[in-house]
Design goal:
By secondary structure, chain A is mainly beta. Chain A contains no helices and eleven strands. The chains are: A mainly beta, B mainly beta. Chains A and B meet through strand 4, strand 5 and strand 9 of A and strand 6, strand 10 and strand 11 of B.
Chain lengths: 114, 116
């Protein structure tokens, strides 16, 4: 158990809809990363938050947004969903200290857009 | 920009045999970290092994070891005495500190099947 909790585990929705994915980082971790893994693909970095502030942005669509709350949990909002948004969305957390940083992954949320 | 390349989309190995997964990367940095992650059918992401670029000694974790060739920018994973539970997708990842944050780049993965 990595200590990172993602909810829901599965989500099925229709095109054009909006969904929110939630991530609770490991206790003590200030940084949250969001990744998208499409079918049989590698992990694409979407966005990173550190202690409530956006730290880095990757290949995140304008239809997608995220935030990190004061209690450090994070939400990824996906709107105007398209079939191609179907993927496994991972959240990962880390401490972000000066030493080696390990990513601790949640078990992912599988989003299916029909 | 940094890139990570895994040139073997799929591999298979007989149980108890040894298999090597390849990974190459491109960077102009001298200080960075390299990782191998395993993603079994359950879809969890599990850290297998890590290597600090400043260390010349290759990392080893039980049946898993790496061959880190810094000059060649190569970071292969060797799995000895392969077990059925090793069947998974394996991702190579590169990490460095970039503008005050840690930047991770993942390869596209190698699907490994261990045959009974």
């Amino acid at each position: 158990d990595s200590g990172v909790t993602q909810t829901p585990k599965h989500l099925i929705t229709a095109t054009g809809q909006r969904v929110t994915l939630r991530c609770s980082p490991r206790s003590g971790d200030l940084s949250v990363y969001w990744y998208q893994q499409s079918l049989d693909q590698g992990l694409q970095f979407l966005i990173q938050y550190y202690n409530g502030e956006e730290r880095a942005k990757g290949n995140i669509l304008e239809r997608f947004s995220a935030q990190q709350f004061p209690d450090l949990h994070s939400e990824l909002n996906l709107s105007s969903l398209e079939l191609g948004d179907s993927a496994l969305y991972f959240c990962a957390s880390s401490v972000e200290s000066a030493t080696l940083e390990l990513l601790h992954f949640g078990n992912g949320t599988r989003l299916t857009v029909t | 920009a940094q890139t990570v390349t895994q040139s073997q989309p799929e591999m298979s190995v007989q149980e108890a045999e040894t298999v090597t997964l390849s990974c190459t990367y491109d960077t102009s940095e001298s200080n960075y970290y390299l990782f191998w992650y395993k993603q079994p059918p359950s879809r969890q992401m599990i850290l297998v092994i890590r290597q600090e670029a400043y260390k010349q000694q290759n990392a080893t974790e039980n049946r898993f070891s790496v061959n880190f060739q810094k000059a060649a920018k190569s970071f292969s994973l060797k799995i000895s005495d392969s077990q059925l539970g090793d069947t998974a997708m394996y991702f190579c990842a590169f990490m460095k500190l970039n503008s005050g944050t840690y930047k991770y780049i993942f390869g596209t993965g190698t699907r490994l099947k261990v045959l009974a």
